[in-house]
Structure to design on (557 residues):
């Protein structure tokens, strides 16, 4: 076991570098083939067999585009909440947050606080209205009152940008995990990963994807619960004793119990929180899950249960992070001859699993890391395919009247095309630092999707022209500021100093997008703008009651 830990970079391949893109699971660096963990392989194969069986069962019920996109709207709130949690609780969260806490204590929670804060916002602000107004994707909601074709094209493009950026990081990580577990060539590992995901999505659709995410969430929550229990059992279940032991071991002492060890700039903390909070709320594959339930009450329950499961997950990570400081920091078997933690700080989560559970728990958590990536990639692939087949083909090209069989066929073709693109991009970026790419989805989501969704649902003066100009400004400034920031301008391009000091620019790009959307909408005197404003009352009625307004009580859409 110790030999395996000394030679494996499994965790590093699943997670992040310090304060880069935590939620997206950025990957970088070279990987060499390592001695395999037989326990991890067995558990991984069990997971694959079980999920493929679920996909086969789901494929028998997936005969229409409605079932493919939203599982026929028959998922319960509790099931959907667990699936949302499974979609969101990534290997990067498990490994990255624990690693950050290992380095800086309380500072490691800063990213999780922003992400967790998104779920109450989703539950109270969006769940009811989005569910009542949409059918398959969040773009259905935005296009209710705005001009159909241009809005769907712009939002579909931003959705595909988010999906592709996520996929690059996730596919590289998943491919390298298979490479490590089985000792296979990287390219073959990528093909295996893509093949599994394509099987889940193309044949089982949302129904299969939902159950893959539920199983993954159960496995991850079981693993972190078991590690936390075994950790606390060593200290008579005293959390204060755990904190005391951690402060004695860490070079910073009691400073790790407050902020300032890693993030000293308050603006840096604020821009991270803004990016994580509003970026999470606007993620297309998360919003898409609100349409898998039968009514708005179940949509709210979905967000409630997701908050519950994700909140518990982060509480468990609090124990794991300080537990790693308490039990790994002074354990020489986890450090190399130079005194550095084997595999880096992101290895802390697996080191603590090894310390309290040995080979079996380590193998289990390694397999869970891979399961998390499969579940996330499945959700992303499905949302990307829906943007192409439903939002572009069915609603734009066919004006909402597509042939159902053709649409379903195109959806499955889109899944395979996205899978092929994921493999090619994974190969292209395997030797590159892609940490910066993983920051783009959250920032784009916060700067494009969130402002459009909020204003379309809650401001009667919002117009098509304002939406388009604001979205383009939000998207372009997000990419430009990320390129000018430390991750690209310094780490990738080799310049001595970044032209923009922050990795997450959403604090600046999101308000700019809002400002442009509002200003252009207010200045818009076109006939279409008048229609957009008139449509708001009808939209508001449907958003609240889930039905068309009675004659004379609202304008017509």
């Amino acid at each position: 076991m110790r030999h395996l830990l000394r030679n494996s970079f499994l965790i590093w391949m699943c997670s992040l570098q310090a304060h880069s893109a935590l939620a997206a699971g950025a990957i970088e660096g070279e990987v060499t083939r390592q001695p395999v963990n037989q326990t991890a392989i067995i558990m991984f194969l069990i997971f694959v067999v079980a999920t493929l069986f679920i996909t086969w069962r789901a494929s028998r019920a997936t005969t229409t585009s409605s079932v493919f996109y939203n599982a026929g709207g028959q998922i319960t709130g509790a099931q959907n909440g667990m699936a949302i949690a499974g979609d969101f609780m990534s290997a990067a969260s498990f490994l990255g947050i624990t690693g950050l806490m290992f380095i800086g204590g309380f500072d490691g929670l800063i990213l999780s606080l922003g992400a967790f804060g998104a779920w109450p916002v989703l539950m109270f602000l969006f769940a009811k209205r989005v569910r009542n107004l949409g059918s398959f994707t969040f773009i259905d909601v935005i296009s209710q009152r705005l001009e159909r074709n241009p809005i769907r094209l712009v939002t579909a493009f931003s959705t595909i940008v988010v999906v592709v950026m996520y996929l690059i990081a996730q596919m590289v990580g998943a491919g390298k995990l298979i490479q490590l577990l089985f000792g296979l060539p990287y390219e073959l590992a990528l093909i295996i990963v893509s093949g599994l995901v394509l099987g889940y999505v193309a044949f089982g659709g949302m129904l299969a994807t939902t159950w893959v995410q539920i199983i993954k969430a159960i496995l991850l929550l079981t693993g972190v619960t078991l590690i936390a229990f075994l950790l606390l059992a060593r200290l008579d279940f005293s959390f204060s004793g755990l904190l005391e032991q951690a402060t004695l071991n860490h070079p910073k002492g009691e400073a790790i119990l407050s902020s300032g060890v890693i993030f000293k700039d308050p603006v840096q903390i604020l821009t991270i929180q803004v990016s994580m909070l509003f970026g999470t709320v606007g993620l297309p594959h998360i919003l898409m899950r609100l349409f898998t339930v039968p009514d708005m009450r179940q949509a709210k329950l979905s967000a409630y249960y997701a908050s519950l499961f994700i909140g518990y997950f982060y509480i468990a990570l609090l124990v794991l992070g300080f537990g790693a400081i308490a039990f790994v920091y002074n354990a020489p078997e986890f450090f190399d001859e130079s005194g550095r933690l084997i595999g880096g700080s992101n290895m802390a989560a697996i080191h603590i699993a090894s310390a309290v559970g040995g080979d079996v728990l380590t193998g289990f958590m390694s397999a869970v890391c891979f399961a998390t990536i499969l579940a996330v990639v499945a959700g992303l692939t499905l949302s990307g395919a829906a943007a192409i087949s439903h939002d572009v083909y069915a609603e734009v090209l066919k004006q909402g009247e597509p042939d159902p069989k053709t649409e379903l066929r195109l959806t499955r073709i889109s899944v395979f095309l996205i899978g092929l693109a994921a493999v090619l991009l994974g190969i292209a970026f395997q030797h590159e630092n892609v940490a910066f790419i993983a920051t783009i989805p959250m920032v784009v989501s916060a700067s494009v999707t969130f402002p459009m969704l909020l204003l379309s649902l809650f401001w009667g003066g919002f117009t098509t022209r304002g939406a388009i100009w604001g979205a383009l400004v939000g998207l372009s400034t997000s990419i430009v500021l990320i390129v000018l920031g430390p991750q690209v301008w310094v780490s990738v391009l080799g310049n001595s100093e970044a032209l923009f000091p922050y990795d997450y620019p959403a604090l600046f790009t999101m308000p700019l997008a809002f400002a442009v959307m509002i200003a252009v909408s207010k200045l818009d005197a076109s006939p279409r703008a008048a229609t957009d404003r008139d449509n708001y009352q009808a939209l508001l009625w449907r958003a609240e009651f889930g039905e068309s307004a009675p004659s004379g009580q609202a304008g017509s859409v």
In short: The CA atoms of residues 86 and 217 lie 4 Å apart. Confidence is low (pLDDT under 50) at residues 1-34, 551-557. The first helix runs from residue 2 to 7. DSSP finds 22 helices and no strands in the chain.
